[in-house]
Write a structure and sequence with these properties.
The protein is mostly helical. It has one domain (24-169): Skp domain (Protein Binding, DinI Protein, Chain A), CATH 3.30.910.20. It has six helices and two strands, in the order H-E-H-H-H-H-E-H. The longest helix has 38 residues, at 38-75. It starts with a helix and ends with a helix.
Length: 172
């Protein structure tokens, strides 16, 4: 009985190593690839410019709300009860519009998110297609991203196909 168990585990171990040797693995460094693609840099620049423009718009609206609140503080003793209530509502409405602008531009489903998807997604698709083509050509079973794998301690440079992916994409 004991010999049977030992033989079973030995056979299992041999099968496991046989299957492991049949698989070929390669690595890419996605951050390196993206840094070396001009279209990615252009898309990032465009996103940065949009983000700055939208942030200026938000900052201006916030400044307007602060001015309204400051003016209200200095004038409130001269205002009637109805005028005070009206001014408070205007200030709250302005602050709400600032929050709405932030949500519109920078929220989870905001304009920046949509624009990033429109600009970056085609580039990512192009990279993934190049990786898939290269993997098929070289008969690579698994391609991992070393920039996204914190557990990776060492990798032989001959397993890195990042430059080959860039070449396939036409980047220098």
């Amino acid at each position: 009985m004991r010999k049977t168990i030992i033989v079973f585990f030995a056979a299992l171990l041999l099968c496991g190593t046989a299957f492991a040797k049949d698989q070929s693995i390669a690595y890419i460094d996605m951050s390196y690839i993206l840094k070396n693609l001009p279209q990615y840099e252009q898309a990032n620049e465009q996103l940065t410019m949009l983000s700055k423009r939208w942030q200026k718009e938000i900052d201006a609206a916030q400044q307007e709300a602060r001015v309204m609140a400051t003016n209200y503080q200095t004038e409130q003793i001269f205002l009637s009860e109805t005028m005070r209530a009206q001014r408070e509502q205007e200030i709250v409405a302005k602050e709400q519009s600032v929050l709405e602008l932030k949500r519109k531009y920078f929220g989870q489903e905001g304009e920046l998110y949509k624009k990033r998807g429109a600009l970056i997604k085609p580039i990512q698709d192009e990279i993934y297609n190049a990786i898939q083509d290269l993997a098929n050509e070289k008969r690579i079973d698994i391609v991992k991203d070393r920039s996204a794998d914190p557990a990776l301690i060492y990798m032989s440079s001959k397993l890195d196909i990042s430059d080959q992916v860039l070449h396939k994409l036409g980047a220098k």
